[in-house]
Batch of 3 targets.
Target 1
Amino acid sequence: MNTQTINDIAQAEQGTSLWKDAWLRLRKNHLAVFGLVTLVLFIVIALLTPWIAPYSYQAQNLELGASPPSAAHWLGTDIFGRDLMTQIMYGGRISLAVGFVATTVALLIGVTWGAVAGYVGGRADAVMMRLVDILYALPFMIFIVLLTVVFGRNMLLLFLAIGAVEWLTMARIMRGQVQSLRQQEFVEAAISLGLSPATLIRRHLVPNALGPIIVYTTLTIPNVMLLEAFLSFLGLGIQPPQTSWGLLISYGAETMEEYPWLLIFPGLALTLTLFSLNFLGDGLRDALDVRGAKD
Amino acid sequence: MQPIISRFLLVVAAVILLAACSGGETNVASGNRLGILHFGNGSEPQGLDPHVVTGVPENKIIRALFEGLAVKNPYTLEPEPGVAQSWDISEDGRVITFHINPEAKWSNGDPMRASDYVWSWQRLLSPALGGEYAYMLYPLANAQAFHKGEITDFNEVGVKALDDHTLQVTLDERTPYFIQLMDHYSTFAVHPPTIEKFGKATDRYTPWTRVENIVSNGAFRLKKWELNRRIELEKSDTYWDRDKVRLNGIIYYPTENVVSEERMFRVGQLHYTNSVPLGKIPVYKEMPDSPYMQEPYLGTYYYLLNTLVPPTDNLNVRKALSMAVDRDKLNATVLKGTNISAYSITPPDTLGYYPPRLFSYDPERARALLAEAGYPDGKGWPGLELTYNTSEDHRKIAVALQQMWKDVLNIEVTLTNQEWKVYLDSITNMHFQIARRGWIGDYVDPNNFLDLFLTGGGNNNTGFADPRYDEMILKKAPRAVTKEERFAVFHEAETLLMEQMPIIPVYTYTSKHLIHPSVQGLPPNLMDSLNLKYVWLEDIEQATETDD
């Protein structure tokens, strides 16, 4: 047997690795690809905004006021004569950042907490989940208000604060998943092979619970974006002249009969992002479902 | 675009109206038939006790339920007989004798007595009641001392019932606006036995104002109160001037959201709106036979400057900030031309008084002043925080000013919005650098605006303190004999005030309402003061038919 054939065999086996397989399946899902492309596009635009924005986001032109879309202002202007496209681009930076950072925080805490509670079980589980119940019972607004009062107004802190209250549901879902997975033979097999709990959770439990987690993540991101808008409206989030999609929409909604474009375009941007996230989430869930047929 | 939208709006309105008509009679139509006024009243009243509440929505209900000794004529704003059929003023202006109308009755049939007023004013001035408007009666001799608890014998206060129908009032100083105060709800009489039935005189929020308990003396009486839905009033049959009252009833609606209030008006649910959304005003202005009514209003919108903390403790900074604000432009654009630019605290033409104007929009001068203060072209600027209470319209103005300061002075100002009660706290404790403020006149007199800035005044909130100013407002003005003399003192004082620029005046208010064409007898006036006794409803369609 020469070395060539051995390599061939190895390559053939590598070709069916879990992640590559998932990627192949994802690529076949057109909606998911559309979602991925849109999201990447939005993120790239958000990153490049300071260099590519057509106007300054602060400069007002009060005489112009609210004007409908035109050649000079593709998406029109707001009541201060500021270019709406620029506003949406800058708003996107904040909304996307808040969406991803806060969700990542929620994801990290929630998944770890839930997985540990579900895996260890017994008294530790009871204590950990009662803690979650207690936090659930606290009105989260008061919690965030307290955080901002104690630490002052700081954007990163706002992201973290939102993340810190959004992880509870994630923890419950994760725990439920892990509890049901624990009863399965492959986990018992892994335990009997002597895997450490940490490795077991990382290698077997979390990947198997990815489906519901991804779906819930795609639901958390829009939630978080709306929460940011709400907090900003109360004066606890970001302040003018900075803006976000949520704020643009809440301002636009108030004048939707007179200046409909102020609601439509920010709304479109947010909707498009949310749809993309959902499509991508759906696609990822199908693609990563290790229990699905592997053919 | 604008005309297209307005046409679109009209079509929408027409469709909704048609739908509403086919679905049954609108409030306006049934109201016109039955003589019932449907009234958008801003928000749900805090309560109906005239000595306890403080807001504008409460005012509009209380003034229909109760009546003062003298009332403002809605056309001229001059006092005319209310509960008192006449009054005499002594030579030196310090003793006023009210003659109470023998026909004046409470809604339970009891006659009104002079002693009811003595009892009611004692209630308002009692420290235990904590009435926010107790200072309205401070012109009375010894009233302030009684309210502060320095004296405890109410007989020393300058109000006496000579007999059942004669009330004698003694003042500290000549107070030309005292008769006007009799139309402020805090000076109204309440029915002593009713209040005593439900607690002590000084208990707040006892059940005496409930529908089944309340006894009032105005042109209307309370018929029904559905919390957060509607408050119904019906014509009172014990009111002394009942023959003149033409409405059979009034229904007040809490309409906190101006956008939905405007929609209610459009579908014929309201005769009268409390406000109009800014964005809709241009559309309404263009309409033929527009229901939009806009009138000067005795109030000023301004920003407080904290003169005790840097950088606003520097007079040049304060002047620079004020001069960098292009009020005319703000008014023409963001405010849709609905207000009047203001350069001082007192609204122009307050009883014929015009405030001094010491400055204008002047970017060059503003920059020079800022440089003098040590921040040439904004260099070294320590930053500034502007506080406002959460509201769409306040935000718009703040954002526009923020950019004007940036453009003219090249300085950064950050905005902070706070919920109403938090904001009031910040203002009272002076935890701000710049803060939004508005003041609506309680009576038509420059004094009502100028006494805000007395040293340590409860609504001063700027740290402005000048003994010469206090002297002029408290001593010189009340002693002036003629109106001209008095106004000259006010003018001098106001000049002194604005030279120190403890505030940035922005605009003089206008009142804005949508009023259905069937509503008659509701003349516009400076106080936005309603006397619903004079209002009647005319069915426009029927009127045109008879004309033909």
Target 2
Amino acid sequence: MKKSYQSLEDNSTNNMKQVIYRNLTSKILYLGFILLLTFSTSLTAQEGDPVNGKALYRTNCASCHKLDSRMTGPALRNVETRLAEEEGLDREWINAWIKNSAGLIRSGDPYAVKIYAEYNQTAMTAFPQLSNQDISDILAYTAEPKPEPVVAEVPTGVQGGGGDGLSSDIMLAALALLFALLAGALVLVNRTLKRFADEKGIEVPVKEKGTPIWKAFVQNQFLVLVTVIFFLLASAYFVYGFFMQVGIDQGYEPVQPIHYSHRIHAGENGIDCKYCHSSARVSKHSGIPSLNVCMNCHKSIAQVGDETQAEGISEYGVDYNAQIQKLYKAVGWDATTQQYTGETSPVKWIRIHNLPDFAYFNHSQHVSVAGVECQTCHGPVEEMEVMYQYAPLTMGWCINCHRETNINVKDNEYYTKIHEELSKKYGVEQLTAAQMGGLECGKCHY
Amino acid sequence: MSSNKKYWKSVEELNENSSIVETLQQNEFVEEIPTDEFLGDKDTLESSSTSRRDFLKYVGFSTAAASLAACEGPVIKSIPYVVQPTEIIPGVANYYATTIANGFDFASVLVKTREGRPIKIENNTDAPTNGVANARVNASVLGLYDSLRVKSPMKSGANISWDTFMSETTTKLKGLNGKAIVLLTSTMPSPSTNKLISDFKSKYGNVSHVTYDAVSESATLDAYQAKYGKRGMANYDFSKAKTIVSIGADFLGNWQGGGFDSGYSKTRIPTNGNMSRHIQFESNMSLTGANADKRVPLKPSEQRLALAKLYSYISGVALPGVLPAGLDEAVKAAAKELSRAGSNGVVVSGIQDVNAQTTVLEINEQLQSAAFDPKTTIFTRQGSDKAVMQLIADMKAGKVGAIITNGVNPLYSLPNPVDFAEGLAKTDLSIAFSMKQDETSTKFEYIAATPHDLESWGDFEFKSGHYSMMQPTIRPLFDTKQFQEVLMAWNETSGSYRDFLKSYWTSNILNGTSFNKAVQDGVYMSSSTSSTGNSEQTIVGGMVDDVSNSFGLGNSDETTVEETILESNVLTGGTAARALADSAKSEGMELSLYTKIGMGDGQQANNPWLQEFPDPITRTTWDNYITVSKSDADAMDLVNVNVANGGLNGSYVNVTVNGVTIENVPVIIQPGQAKGSVGIALGYGRSSQALKEEMKTGVNAYPLYQNFSATQNVSISKVAGMHEFACVQLHNTLMGRGDIIKETSLEIFNTKDKNVWNKVPEVSLNHIETPVTSPDVDLWEGFDRSVGHHFNLSIDLNACTGCGACVIACHAENNVPVVGKTEMRRSRDMHWLRIDRYYSSEESFEGDNEKKENISGLGSSLSEFGEMENPADNPQVAFQPVMCQHCNHAPCETVCPVAATAHSRQGQNHMAYNRCVGTRYCANNCPYKVRRFNWFLYNKNDEFDYYMNDDLGRMVLNPDVTVRSRGVMEKCSMCIQKTQKTILDAKREGRLVEDGEFQTACSAACGNGAMVFGDINNKDSKIAELKENDRMYHLLESVGTKPNVIYQTKVRNTSKA
């Protein structure tokens, strides 16, 4: 403790001394700069191209730097101006730093050393491949003014939906009006005709009042019987249907403690399912990824892109950045110091796919051995903003797949002999899972 | 035409004027229905605030609420790790090698953990010593999840913190003003712990360490120490013996720490026409006696003389004393056989007498027995009776300042707990290191909560040079500290015990090999002599010396102690045998105290698996009892009867030894019990708050264990009342049905054709006798199982000793519930695997078969079948493990109305619990009676308050096996979860399954090689070979069920045939 304090002090005194010295040199440099400006225009060619800079920034810098907030490295917005104004460091220093920061630190450059110490003594990766022009492009990009924050648009869904509703309502109203007019017209015509008839003295034959239809119905016992049977059968059908869906949670889409978007991760970013659900390869459980797996990426992704954020708010009403903050809170990550605090609060996810205790299912059998795509059972996960149960997970559904799916025998010595013998016995080219014994009770119930 | 017959229900009805008939006709209910009792009480009725309307409202509301609640599925939460340990994959089991060492059982084991929870104990096949877990070791995993464990250190019944504990105890230990500190521990053959104890001694000065075994082997240790200079026991490798003579040694049970049975079983399987011959002289019917080729029942006092005579006949030294003629002949014959066997013979004895044990060592040396290995010392018993008694005397004299116990329960297991309690009151500080608030720790000032073996670090030297490592398999569940950790804190040694262990091992034992490797293997073999030297130090530093040196006693006391030891040890050779012969005095009834296979010394009494474990011999659960021979029982009018509900009842007796009486001991009439002798098992009758109410079973026999002598003169008197046993096997004999357990003698086996001694049963087809295996007589269409795997399980009746490790392993693997004593008595036991025990009614089973064959005519069959129900006085015994036989033509399948049970291509008979509606037709149609019905919900049910009723206990459940619900049938699945896992592993790795990979829980637990499991379609496998073995037969083959469990005919090495 004491020692580091000592060294800090040393540092500051050093700095002080050097500042004086540097002021002097910088004056000379400034002079030189002005001279250069006046005598040559070639330097203006060094003006960066922010578009190219953006591309370079994305590939080289973005994994450790953000424009407006601190990450592994410091925030870079207007870094050149800030360095020049606050530390009096020029472009040359920046070039030297980017191309070989470690060298600069070794050379004892005070600001380099200071930065190095401030960021946990992690040296910045050297980028010798970047030319001065590249660097000035990047700097030009960082010098661009911060765009106005995207104003969270009031979700337009309701409004738009309302608009649609209105137009159809108008159509309906118009139709209703039309029908009313037609009906009115008919009544009018009828009345007029009757009047004519009366005037002409034509007797309109009065229809004899028969038994009302419901009475006739009651009297016809056969019809009653048929109707009763029909209603009984119909209700039995619905009751059966109701009971058969008890306990089947197809489409179950619970609200999770953290709004995790499979659409973004598996869809847009194309992360392999088994990167996070790695135990699906070897275990019966696919496994809910532990939070340290999330942090493999989210250590450096504290915020989503602005467009994604805007999309989240407008389309799904979700603040993605707040969700990432929830992750940080759960895993105990302090984004400002870039360190784990050790205070964790494990996430209580709500389990979506619940098999009963008496049904045994093994992911690795299906994923590793059979090579079944995750989507076969879990549906288009890469399109799901919120995960839901895609398949009914009923026994009939399992069995059906076992009947239809051929076993994957390719390059699997285990199957070679047994497949050869069994396929000969059944007289088929390719055995289904059912023919391998995949319908036996004890394969799943024990 | 109508009949004139008059039907009548009683004679009274014929009497027309009977008033009784009149009244009965008028009055349907003879006894009045007590409506008045209920409704007549006006006050209660009126004061009741619940009107009929309200009642209906409540009923309606609760029904509606319940049905509404049922509509919504429960929300199930899943909580993943924050940081997942790399070695844990949810759903994949991890195995760790560790050690179970609780002072009574010592075993190197593998622990199966799932998601960080130990769920099962398996054998460590890499371990050359004690790598086979017995029933108690298998069950000890449940002790980890005992809800009655001490959860933090305690002071006078209140929880305190470890900081308080450490600061208070350290101050008190330092302020004893020179009074002695005594460490009273169970046997801990741990090199590092002994180092810590010697550090503790040098730090605190007046410290002594007394080792106490609840069930003492002190005499054996003394004899060995006198002869070989080390405190330990000689090693026996029975696989090198051809002729084994045992005098009262239950070496297949708990004799000298156990672990001898796998060597024994190796010699019991006839190979090249040879197998070992085993002669047993004993009083109680023990597991060992049940396995013997020749068993001679004799009283404990006669055992002494028999051993002396055996010595005499072998060495030719004449000794006084006369044995009854028959016995003498038997001893002579045994001596002759031993002399003939020479170095292939071995003698063992369980007589707790220094002279007896010295004599045994002498005989074995004289024989130059190959099985006898005195150079390898067994260290798993270290207790010294004298040291313990001296300690109690010193405590009572107020010489002991502080007593610190670890792993012992003297106030339960001492014969004189009152003396100990009296002495305890005079100590200034008492600390009990214990997992439980047991009989002892509750009386101590401090309880230092200790972790379970599965949560601890440790090292053990089972035999010289044979080390076993203990490592934690789970983070401690409670706020506990190991004895060693606390010792280190008292010693002011910094670091953790693990670090200490590592540095101690690196510098003293490992000789440059890797510590991590030793921990990973769980065992370490040292060939260098340094370790032996080290252990010698351990032993000498052990007990006897300490007692005399460190109590601060006067010189005179010291000499007396040493003198007594010398006195007992000085006898050698013939002198010991002579003294032994002199000591053989018989007075009236003699008692042999023993320990049961299930309960051991009683420290695991709160383990429901062990309570419900049927004793291999009596097949009784949840009890101990006094075993009495039939003739003694008749003389004292003691009875065992089967009552109408099928339960076994027995008389009660009072048992008195030297004025100490235990009241109401239930009686079991034990075939084979020597006349004039009785036996009682130790380890029952626990009574503290360390046990649930249901577990407080049996009577405590330790008060009879006076002077640590297992044999006592006893007097017995019958008292009124009948005890209700929970016995799982009520029929004791085979009634001459030789096709259930096929057996033959070695001579017939060697000389005669297979058809003579293992004939396939025949049935008559068109009046031609046809073997039942012929397809012509089969009602069934065969099912092709030639492709893929076809599992078979072979059980060798020769190698099976009936030890029951498989029963507990099956319990643990398959989530078999515990049902409790009342349900057991109703024959509602749930064990998927049972080990049937049969007695012969004649001298031998062969005699039974002959007798049955010769029965002819009604008169003869009426009397003789009745006789055959009774076992002989000294019967032959046979064990037969029976589980679902997985019939290819299964009778259970055809009667199931919902097709819940079905055969499979792999030979397993499947049982789909979710499909079962509980008609129980299958159980009725099963010829083997192996199906078990869930009469109740045995989990999360307060009526069955065993491990499945608390959250902690349920942690032991195997997540791969369904926990069955009420109303479904269940049975052995041939561990389909294990076979499926093996297949899946092979599929994932894209390879074939190798022989030996397939295992069931029982076959993996069987260290005796009696159970072999495998795929008979793999023609190179061991099981395929066993299937073709001449000894192979199927149980009840004549029924034609074509089972996939096969048995190997039992061959007895009887000299007779």
Target 3
Amino acid sequence: MNVSRFLTTTSQYAFLGVAAFLSLFPFLWMVISSTNTSIDIISGRMGLGDAFRTNVANFFTLVDVPLVFWNSAKVAVLATLLTILVSSLAGYGFEMFKSKARDRIYSLVLLTLMVPFAALMIPLFMMMAKTGLINTHVAIMLPTIASAFIIFYFRQSTKAFPTELRDAAKVDGLKEWQIFLYIYVPVMRSTYAAAFVIVFMVNWNNYLWPLIVLQSNDTKTITLVVSSLASAYYPDYGVVMIGTILATLPTLLVFFVMQRQFVQGMLGSVK
Amino acid sequence: MYHRTILSRFVAGALAGASLFASTAAFAGEVTIWCWDPNFNVAIMKEAAARYTAQHPDTTFNIVDFAKADVEQKLQTALASGTTDALPDIVLIEDYGAQKYLQSFPGAFAELSSKIDFSGFAPYKVQLMTVDGAVYGMPFDSGVTGLYYRKDYIEQAGFKPEDMQNLTWDRFIEIGKQVEAKTGKKMLGLDVNDAGFIRILMQSAGGWYFDKDGRLSIEGNSALKAALETEQKILQAGIFKPAAGWTEWVGTFTTGDVATVTTGVWITGTVKAQADQSGKWGVAPIPKLNVEGASNASNLGGSSWYVTANSSEKDEAIDFLNEVYAKDIDFYQKILAERGAVGSLLAARTGKAYSEADPFFGGEKVWQNFSDWLVKVPSVNYGVFTNEVDTAVTAHLPSLGQGTPVDDVLKAIDSQAQGQIQ
């Protein structure tokens, strides 16, 4: 083993170490702070404190935790399943069915990625108001279901899907929906897993649109609740930290459970 | 949808001979309110709602708490989309932003001039919600300012509490130099990336970023110029402890590192939270600038309640605000004692909580003093773009410390502000 290789390896590890520290520190800080009082947090205390139970108790008195979690979970899970169903069908369709208009329509779909949400917000809000959906969870989910990014992601992954499988299935007399359901979905399961992780995170952390649409305390999701706690004139940061931990846990959990499939899916593997 | 119930009850009440229903049953709707801060505005509104429902049992309240930025975002979206049925009946708006909403969305908020007697409120609070002579809100918490000072440090430097009353800023700086020489403590904490201090000084001399007609006024604004000069003198005298951000700034006085704090009355709770400093603090009027129209009173922050014009519960909402916020002296005692909230109703000072001597401040009647100063806060026009101009001012504050002449700083602020407003 020569010196230059040793140096390269060391510097690589040093770089990765710094990067890991930078990404992990906020989480560490969050966990440490959840055990301290607000005053200790402000003064930058780095050690573990003994206020964890008080913070949790305060959080549970201020917030109707089961209701808020139920709201968040309902919205995130349903929106994720619907998004994946609709967008994977679209991605499949775009790749499988050839026509002249296909790529033009596809470009239009991708073009919507460039429109910032802030520009869509007011027209969307008017649509929801006209259909009487303001302050409902349906209103949060509807605009997210047809996701241009996920359509794009599925179409790209579908390029690796062996068309011979589809041809063979056709010869065997399977209808298109059967091919999709019994052949495509099982083959693409790591793609589905990766999409699930991404879409779930986006929906769970969704903030701006729920904020605009939701109007009452009993429909609010966890992101709105934490934001409200943090914006007090004198926020109790200990309580805010409990809120952020609870808001982070589900996405972490989903990620760790599906980590292996996620990585495979991102690499675009087809089994 | 509530109209019918209200109307039928009215008719029933009238038919049954007014006496039966007169006191209670005129309204039966649900009043929805948006505001921020669960421990302050939300808690205070719940108290107000409880007081009203005690007299009007048919009225219910739905108080929804969102973050302050979230309330503004929601309000802006609903107003801009013209979807008025998505608006609450009552909404809390920060005073600096009031004119923006009132002028950008004319007709969106209920005019209250004929329904509420505004003569009983601090004049500057009423002025900031007035458009073309019509008043559109219910004045709520005040940010009337005071000079909180450490009696022990001041005395070590050879001064008495009497020496701290009605100062000028030049005198304040002289005392600051003495305090540092004798005690080693800085006179004040200062965040040079925050324009709050400038806003306090400017309003104390009756000035703002805008003139009385709401036009941008930077160059040639004597109050703003004097405020910037004062900050520059303080920076050059070195009598301040620098702070980066709000929490660090709060830390300058909670840790006992500085001798004074000049800010809004809402800081009182934070000052008093340091129990070991009890008896060491005093509160005086803030020092004044050396320009025409200068006074020892000013304001920082504060917000007020607004009723939306298309609310189906409009009359009920107005009646509620009028009954509690414009009349209930006892309510103001309770929110002062429990939440540290100083309202804008001048008569509140006659109550018990306002009359109490506070041992933390060595037995001073601080609330009486603050309500004296409340009347004197100069009225200014906060204009439509206070936050935008504030960004321009903040951007150029650090150059004061580098010794850039104030006239040049004003010029730079002016050109940036012009750009941001257009």
